[in-house]
Amino acid sequence: MIRFALRGMLGRKLRTALTAIGIVLGVALVSGTYVLTDSISSAFDSIFTENYKNTDAAITGKSPFELSQEEAAGGVAPPFDQSLLPKVQALPEVEVADGSVFGEAQLIGRDGKAVVFGGAPNLAFSVNPDRPEFNTLALVGGAWPAAGEVVIDTQTASKKGFQAGDTIGVQARGPIQQMRISGLVEFGQVSSIGGATLAGFDLPTGQRLMGKAGKLDQILVAKKDGVSEQQLLTAIQQTLPDGTQVRSADEQATADAEGTSGFLDFFRTFLLVFAGIALFVGSFVIANSLSITIAQRTREFATLRTLGASRRQVLGTVVLEALVTGLVAAVAGLFLGLGVATGLFRIFDAVGLTLPNNGLVFRTRTIVVGLLVGVLVTLVASLRPAWRATRVPPIAAVREGATLAPSRFHRFRPIGAALLAIAGVALVLTGLFADGLSTTTVLSSLGLGVLLIFIGIALFSSRLVRPLAVLSDPVARWSVVVLTVLVWPLFSLPYWLLRRGLWGPGPAGRRTAGFVLGAVLNPVLLLIVALMALRRRFSSWEPEWPAEFPGVLADRPATQIGGQNSRRDPHRTASTAAALMIGLALVTLVATLGAGIIKPFEDAVDRIFNGDYAVTAQNNFSPMPPAVAAAVAAVPGVDAISSVRGGQAQAFGETIFMTAVDTQAPAVLTFDWKDGSQAVLGELGSDGAVVDDAYAEKHNLQIGSTFPLHTVGGQTLTATVRGIFTPPPGGSPFGNVTISSAAFDATNPQPQNLYTFVSLQGGVTAANTAALDAALASFPNAKAQTREQFKDAQSDSIKSLLNVLYVLLALSVLVSLFGIVNTLVLTVFERTRELGMLRAIGLTRRQVKRMIRQESVMTALIGAVIGIILGLGLASLLAARLDEVSFTVPGGQVVIFAVVSVVVGIFAAIWPARRAAKLNPLEALQYE
């Protein structure tokens, strides 16, 4: 039986390959995800290892509480006094020690704009060439920096046209400064550090630029020979003042990597979810393909049963075929994953997330997981078709056109499908609305619930095929008409012009004429088709189409047969459409949530911000030094200006995001007060605080309540609640606790602004905009925006994320496309004699193609209708639970998704239609 199964697969190479495509693509994304994240992790590990080469111990500042790596500001331990360095150097266990500072500094290009590559950080640090053992940089050209000089990385120099000896602008915590480039450097042995820019200074210059005069961020220490690591750490520990800590080099590298590790874990899980979606869709493709193949092999299995094969042997044959298919597909997917990883690097680079790369890493874990996932998914998907194969009776071997009788449980399928969908909805509702559940429980409940909903709807959708097919039949016909008329000239006209020498290399006028003809011809042809359709609608006139014109209205019988074919086997059509349904449901869900996030956000900006301009960083999210706001405040005509500072603090035993506002906040910011008033914002003083209502309820806070607030500077404030506000549904820039800027600056060594809001006399005018731009000329990393520009810029990050999600979900749509192709190809095999008979009674090849295309488009439309409705339903449930999301139907995108489904149907039909049209009628009539 093993030999029989393998020979059968070799005899059906095309069908086997088409069946395996879904698993190939799913495993490719799993493999690509692991290769991508392992490569990034390896690059970061190399970076952190290089940072502490030849180092035995590292001394850093220490926050009084554990800082969260998730917050945008305030996540860095405070610097410490430089006087600690000579004390460490004097220890008998220490061979050599060196101190440094680090932070962020913008390099300014020749165009006056900040140099930014894909949103990556702009790293600044001090360099000491006298301590080469601690230096992670390699000098490529020029010299190390002296006072007032800078070294920059070769990537920035190459892309922006700088070389050693040139002058470049540098902006850190103050205005831009012009500095001489003393040399060009590269970072250690890492081939790429992503889009990060590097700026190195001597220690005094770095301290001045980063506002850390007399301070250090780190001391690196090398021990003497014969001294153990523990002896060194113990000796250093005894000399450390409060607010500092010492770790071994390995421990410090691990601590530095914690934030990166957390990000990579989330990133890996995020991508694996989409790989799972692709595999889930692929499982439908495999199950459907095997079901069709088994139906076509009824007589073959019956003959085996007649010759003595047991049901177990038939089951084993089908399972073995699935096992081999899954194994081969998984191996192909593993290696395709290398290309996927490379593509993902480029995609994230394009959307502003340039990641470090030190070469692709292909680990054993990737191979094992990829093979297991591919084989297991294929086997699970094959179980039901394999079980059906065992029910083929021996008598079917002598019957013409024998089919499998439905099982005794078939009548319970609609009830079972409905129960699965109901159970899925119940799990989703539990995950969304039940209180007290852990994050893991919530995510598990949501994931399992959505999975059950998809399976239940897919099984039940066979009941919806017939009514939906009736509705989609004319839609499919006219969709094909419109798309054919629109697409045909775009392909044929350039070819026609090229053949006649009127297009291509040559005068610009000829090329322009070709494009103009194309732009005119499309609308004209569309108008002709529309007029003919209207005339046919209201009269019995039948147009005579020229044979060479690519029309699709002339052969109604062919399209009618295609529509009837889609209704012939509702279960097959539903199963084929289910793959596309899942992809489009998720795409619709993402689009609806995106629209539901952007709209409340814009409303929140309108409710909170009542000024004229907002000043932010160029990338819209990086913190800015207070000097930026000071420069804006000096602009003539400023009525009010207020900045929102951000950082971290600890209260009630947990780390929170804390913000601060100044005394002018009431003039440009409006809160929805539950208790308190606008005046409170300007009267917080040294101990006042306002909190959001959820935080107040959680900790039973009321007006007049006091609580300790621990800051990163080591001080403890006794905060008194002066007001309680309700954040708008779209979110706000304010943390759980907001204090005054004066109190914030007194307890935070490096205060930074998240946003600065401004009101000017006359409001938004060209003159005011020019005045703000002039004031910010010394701060190229800052920009002034009107309210509308601010909303658009802030929502761009959401739109970029949505684009990434669309690209990842497109893989599941691609899998579903191959599923439709596979079904149509297998159907062509199954209906070979039928097609031969149709050809024999006069159906032309063109009509055969239209018949297959109609069936394909109708299948795609059925999947689209169910998927879009399901996606909107899931989005409505999430919007009902999340205050930050409103249920907003993205009408334009929904229409685009429907059009995409038609395009998918048309493309899926190209190859099967050509294959069906090429059948020889005489040979087809004799096909067994």
UniProtKB/TrEMBL annotation:
One GO location term (cellular component): plasma membrane
InterPro entries in the record: ABC3_permease_C, MacB_PCD, Macrolide_Exporter_MacB
MacB-like periplasmic core domain: residues covered: 16-238, 573-770
Location of the ABC3 transporter permease C-terminal domain: 273-394, 807-921
Spans traversing the lipid bilayer: 270-294, 315-348, 360-381, 415-434, 446-466, 478-498, 513-534, 577-598, 804-829, 856-880, 892-911
Keywords: Cell membrane, Lipoprotein, Membrane, Transmembrane, Transmembrane helix
Keyword Transferase appears in the UniProt entry: no
Compartment list: Cell membrane
A molecular-function term among this protein's GO annotations: transmembrane transporter activity
PANTHER family xrefs: ABC TRANSPORTER PERMEASE YTRF, MEMBRANE COMPONENT OF TRANSPORTER-RELATED
Record-given protein name: ABC-type lipoprotein release transport system permease subunit
Source organism: Kribbella steppae
